[in-house]
Amino acid sequence: MDLVPALEEPLKKVLGPPTAKVMAEHLGLHTVGDLLHHYPRRYEERGQLTHLADLPMDEHVTVVAQVADARLHSFASAKAPRGKGQRLEVTITDGSGRLQLVFFGNGVHKPHKELLPGTRAMFAGKVSLFNRRLQLAHPAYELLRGDPEESVETWAGALIPIYPATAKLESWKIGKAIQTVLPSAQEAVDPLPGSLREGRGLVSLPEALLKIHRPHTKADIDDARARLKWDEAFVLQVALARRRHADAQLPAVPRRPSPEGLLTAFDDRLPFTLTDGQRKVSREIFDDLATDHPMHRLLQGEVGSGKTLVALRAMLAVVDAGGQAAMLAPTEVLAQQHHRSVVEMMGELAEGGMLGGAEQATKVVLLTGSMGAAARRQALLDLVTGEAGIVIGTHALIEDKVQFHDLGLVVVDEQHRFGVEQRDALRGKGKQPPHLLVMTATPIPRTVAMTVFGDLETSVLDQLPAGRSPIASHVVPAADKPHFLARAWERVREEVGNGHQAYVVCPRIGDDEDEPKKKAQEDADKRPPLAVLDVADQLAKGPLTGLRIEVLHGRMAPDDKDAVMRRFAAGDTDVLVATTVIEVGVNVPNATAMVIMDADRFGVSQLHQLRGRVGRGSAPGLCLLVTEMPEASAARQRLGAVAATLDGFELSRIDLEQRREGDVLGQAQSGARTSLRVLAVIEDEEVIAQAREEAVALVAADPEMTGLPGLRTALDALLDDEREQYLEKG
């Protein structure tokens, strides 16, 4: 796909070093092939104008609009004390909405001459809020003149492609660069097998590239996108199918629980019956564990659906069969908590080798980086002798020193926090590859599971155990209605008065070592996100005075964190002011209220995760999303969506539609190369499902792709090192 020999020409040679440098640094584009695969985000029609009302805040946008009026103002400032400062305010319109442009100083002269009322142009800049109105400061612009010569030359008919651009390189400059390299598209090597392309009526790759960059009609765009979506879906699914195929060739030890063993003893002492969902998912897992190649299963469950119990039963089955099981948690707080809850659930079954331990009992050990030397030595000894059947830990489990007697199952909690290297390092500790169970509480739509976790089979737990309470969620618009915020703190006091506890979540810690203050936050419009230490202090002196308030954040010493969590769990603290360290796995049934400050600074899935920490007991939960964003903003709509539904799958769809898929599928920071460009994971469900079928059939018939050089090249480009990791990291 990306690196086809004819398209490997560096952009430096074709476009000159300055432009090539900006493209490499800001857009991750290095070769002619990369640039050809930098597709327009959308198209503007010469006669039509953009919807100005829908512009996203803080994003770099390109709009086509008409100048309504332009006014030049003089003012006095430090630099121009005698009233010589100049500011040009231009209002542009799309026929319904308006947007203000401002230019200052010497920058006013050219736009003052050119941006006359009635002029149409493309404007590019960053959308900001000034006096509660949207504006672009010092936008770049390109006039759309009616000169027939130029418009045909430059803008390829009536459809103007708008490219994902940056402040350093506007969309129309990218368009011109693409015109320069477009002839090379003829040499693109096609990754799709001919039979597939013909069977599905798809255009060739060179034709698709030509049509996406220089469409004459909307049908051209549709043809091109349909074809390019297939490339992305198919190459990705072939990569995943090959990985599943390779995994299926690996040997593993089948692990079947013994009929009167540890698992049976554990089930007998459970004070409740399993839900149908837990039974069904357990059956799927036990069937996998009984085979002689490694299980690779993803267990998705709504917040609080009992995933830990299902995972624990799988671990007990493996211990029954003579193996060991390891559970990997992303943080120490979580590892300690899992260890506590597993030991509590197992009772005397967790006291193997101890007085009072049951006869089938095993030992459950904890292994984290901050343990004392003696405790650590003992834990390592228990693992290597096989005395400990179950170990729960953090990354410390992966270190070279850790040796297992016979590792049979690895359970990874919250997959999105673990990289491929860690999964593989832990796999390598078994005599043969151990079985793998990955758990996530972030519900993932089916197609995302097929794309991101395509190397894993999926099980879904969507039933909540009986006795769980619903959570009421409300948006608190602190700027528009300050009395709502005052009422929120009253509600917290009421919950505490009724014997319950509350969380207050903030985006930042706020100590001296705090994250470098970003330049953007120094702008007058944008205050820094609220911080745990400041908020805790204000609450203690103000609306929550007299309550027992503690703080919890990631930079505290592990022992201090654990002590704070223990006091909160024991009910010795009324209100815990914390960062997102409480996002996953923290379980305090008596906590019924949560106030999330600056809620607009969190993603949809993260808010859903956080909210899942309340309402875990029999009393109903309350979650208040505090924001200062204006009512019409996209951020407020997102919060409204979270407040409106408790269905995590529904929210994950909304989340995906709002974030671009690139952020979902790869580390956003690795740039344009790793993210999907035209494939929309939600809308293109059918394409992904069909591509998966085609890929599975192809790999089964010819795992080495012998007759398909184009596909092999595309796979190599997809699976360069960072892609390899990103596929596995999910």
Structural commentary:
- With 730 residues, the chain is an alpha/beta fold.
- The radius of gyration is 29 Å and the shape is globular.
- The two termini are 21 Å apart.
- Strand 20 (591-596), helix 21 and strand 21 (621-627) form a beta-alpha-beta unit.
- The strands form 4 sheets. It has a 7-stranded parallel beta sheet, sandwiched between helices.
- The model is unreliable at 148-157, 516-525, 660-675 and 721-730 (pLDDT under 50).
- It has 27 helices and 21 strands.
Please tell me what the overall shape is: globular
How many helices? 27
Low-confidence stretches: 148-157, 516-525, 660-675, 721-730
- The pLDDT mean sits at 80
Topology, element by element:
Elements: H1 11-15, H2 17-27, H3 32-36, E1 42-45, E2 60-75, E3 85-93, E4 98-104, H4 109-114, E5 120-130, E6 133-137, E7 140-143, H5 148-155, E8 159-162, H6 171-181, H7 194-199, H8 205-213, H9 218-249, H10 262-269, H11 276-289, E9 296-301, H12 307-320, E10 324-328, H13 332-346, E11 363-367, H14 373-385, E12 388-393, E13 407-413, H15 420-427, E14 435-440, H16 446-452, E15 457-461, E16 471-477, H17 482-497, E17 501-505, H18 519-522, H19 532-541, E18 549-552, H20 558-570, E19 575-578, E20 591-596, H21 604-611, E21 621-627, H22 634-644, H23 648-658, H24 661-665, H25 685-701, H26 709-718, H27 721-729
Parallel strand pairs: 4-6, 9-14, 9-15, 10-12, 10-13, 11-12, 13-14, 16-21, 17-19, 17-20, 18-19, 20-21
Antiparallel strand pairs: 1-8, 2-3, 2-5, 3-4, 5-6, 5-7
Helix pairs in contact: 8-9, 9-25, 9-26, 10-12, 11-12, 16-25
